[in-house]
Amino acid sequence: MIEGLYIHIPFCHQICRYCDFVKMVPQKGMPSIYVEHLIRELESNIPLLTNLKTIYFGGGTPTLLDQSLLARLFEAISHRLNLSLLEEYTIEANPNDITKTLGAMFVQHGINRVSLGVQTFSPHLLTFLGRTHRPDDIGRAIQELRASGIKNINIDLIYAIPGQSIQDLKMDLNQVLGCHPQHISAYNLILEEKTILYHAYQNQQFEFLDDELELEMSDLIESTLLEAGYHRYEISNYALPGYESKHNLLVWNLEEYLGIGMGSHSQYQRKRLVNHTTFSSYIAAIDEIGLGFAHEEPYEPEIEFVMLGLRKTAGIDVDRFETLFGQPIFQRFPELKHHLATGLLEKKGRQLQLTKQGLDLANQVFVTLF
Amino acid sequence: MSDIFEQYRVRQRKIRNFSIIAHIDHGKSTLADRILEITQTVPMRDMKKQLLDSMDLERERGITIKLNSVELTYKAKNGEEYLFHLIDTPGHVDFSYEVSRSLAACEGAVLVVDASQGIEAQTLANVYLAFDNDLAIIPVINKIDLPSAMPDMVKQEINDIIGIDTTHTIFASAKEGIGIEDILETIVTEIPFPEGDPSLSLQALIFDSYYDTYRGVIPLVRVKNGIIRVGDAIKMMATGAVFEVTEIGVYTPKEEARPYLAAGDVGWLAATIKNIEKVHVGDTITIASNPAKTPLPGYRKLTPMVYSGVYPVDADDYINLKESLEKLKLSDASLIYDPETSEALGFGFRIGFLGMLHMEIFQERIEREFNQNVIATAPSVNYRVLLTNGQTIEIDNPALMPPVGQIKTIEEPFVKATIIAPNEYVGNIMELCQKRRGVFKNMQYVSDIRVEISYEMPLSEIIFDFFNRLKSSTKGYASLDYEPLGYRPGKLVKVDILLNGEPVDALAMILHQDFAFERSTKVCQKLKLLIPRQLFEIPVQAAIGSKVIARTNIKALRKDVLAKCYGGDVSRKKKLLEKQKQGKKRMKSVGSVEIPQAAFMSVLSLDNE
User: Is A17 part of a structural domain of the chain?
Assistant: First the structure.
């Protein structure tokens, strides 16, 4: 049963140097064409969307759409879908796009969670990442969202940015805690292929931080946030109790979700489906069949159950694995046992979990699944 | 008086068997292409560039490594039609044995020299092999169309250095089609027709072979005396094996069946030979019921110069690797191998190679053509070890060197290295050779600006990345050839490499005492770079006996995690992990340490020497 809906808005004012999502700087007229097609794709999928618990607007930058287009989308959703079961309704936002009226409009349409792409408060690091907002935008954005009635706010942080010091990170953490968000995602900067940053790295324009320093940073993040009352519930995610991201938990629990929009992914009926990733092919597909579907990718539930489930600090229930797949987990993946010995995994009752060290070296465990 | 053999004799007088010999890149393959084109052996539309080099690898590297023989007909200016057999030869120093085999099937050779480059060390080596086989030599100065061409000077070089008659020298450009007719005419007039008598008992020389999945071993032969026909029961004179000939033919260059091959002919035969051990290149084929009294005179005995351990990455592939080696040996008679075991790598083979290029080509072929995933250890030469108990043993695997206490002396193979280069690089060359324990022997000018320098050096120094160094210190202008000089004693020591405190036998090396510290340090540093960080810290040490002479540490892996994995990331992250897994699979677990293939070769390319 599909409980999550993801809606992708691929547009950005400027492309961040590290970003490898499906994104583009729109030409005039593109956003309204796109929104009309999104609504058509939504309409085609209505029969699948009767039990939604979460909706998530991601990007790109959803707040790049002007307010009338956003309103059209929000109305299409609230008019056409049954939202009686909806618990969490998130939109990603760029801090400098937030205004009082925008916040009010979110609340008016039922949005109850906003995820802000803050990344860092250091101006020189924001420049390195290619972000357009200034540090002061962030505090102001949060104030205005709160004033509008948004009670659940996430802040995205990036650390281990080339040029970042421990001092820089401490400042970021102080600033974040000063904003009192309910949820914090903290990612170490990952170099993805096909990004501007990757190209710059190939041309030796910068070096990555020493991994000892990176480790020191992730330890600092964890201890600081734990002390402030947050708990780490996934490799990169922290929340105040009760504020864990319900939408993302669907993914990590291998539950079903549907994605609409350019390049969005879906997982339902034992399939992984991917939408067209270019503007023209997506628009053409919607015009033709009303769906953005481009191709299918392998669905390997046993591997995915473990690989996604272990990302959560609570880990996976080994009995549930056996119930779902009819085979004990250590029989299906004997090498997992080896990592109980190396100390990357531990078992607490029925739960198999990554240890503290295992959270930093999770890939060493995950590769054994393949 | 005419007899039943007269028709064969008439035909025999129209046969010309020849090879093209040249230094790499001097244009041999292009010339072969032109000859095929002009004799219209191959229709223009079928022409692939460099037609004779049939293996992909050959075409990619521009090096001919497998022999091929093509039959073509040429109508000469005298109105007569001639039957040419063009036998292709490799052009690299490592393959002098293969060159000698194909030259023994010829009466003449076309010597191709680049009009701007002049004579190179390998040109000389191959010309001397042609002299050994009493071949008629036709000098061709190629690439005369290039602005840098100096054909008259090169002609003078040929006269002075090789000392052959240059009256018939042809100025040519194979690329532009200049001089090709002249070459063909000169082949007719200057290369003698094959001697040999079709009425005598059959003697056919096997000069190459390959394996055909359906028909078994296909030997390529040159008939010296007698006639071979389909249906004949033939006997391999060295192995004594008997087979019935099912098919006979030539290459045009397409395979074409013929009823017979007579004295002077070059071609292939099939005889349902399934046991590859029965066909030895260099052996003589005769008729079982009427055998020749003696086999044809032998080929130059082939001696491997370097040895390397080759192991399957996955131990289960050992039998596959063994079968692949057997098949590969059919097209590479110079390959010599014996089973060996390594504590680190398990069951594998010690393989003898003619040189470093031969080894590289072997590795590429075994991976590409035979799909074998192998680990090769750093190459070694063969050492002669005199023990304190008076016994002498041969060691071609450093790991097997006995303890110091049992050794009286170690002898290593020396070679005479001949280098030809422009005179401005003499200083660099000498510096390099001196560093490699070279003893200066001679220097002479081959032209106003080019010199030939000879050194006596340990072979182990040549295989230690010498050729690449030589190229880089002479901007690529130097050419190298070497020939064995026998064994000489040296102050040599065995250096063990220890990972995590355990010696890894496949990484052991024999080094000269004076270089042991420096090179061991570099090997340790190189291993630190090549071995990925693992869950624990790994000490890397080099030791002579129990004395550690160099060490470093590979720090433990502290962070290896994908920061993000949301709905749109699952498939992509799975692919990344799969890739990481594939990388792990290609590594060899030695004790608790995972070692990538490249690490076993680390000793070979130590930077900033």
Answer: no
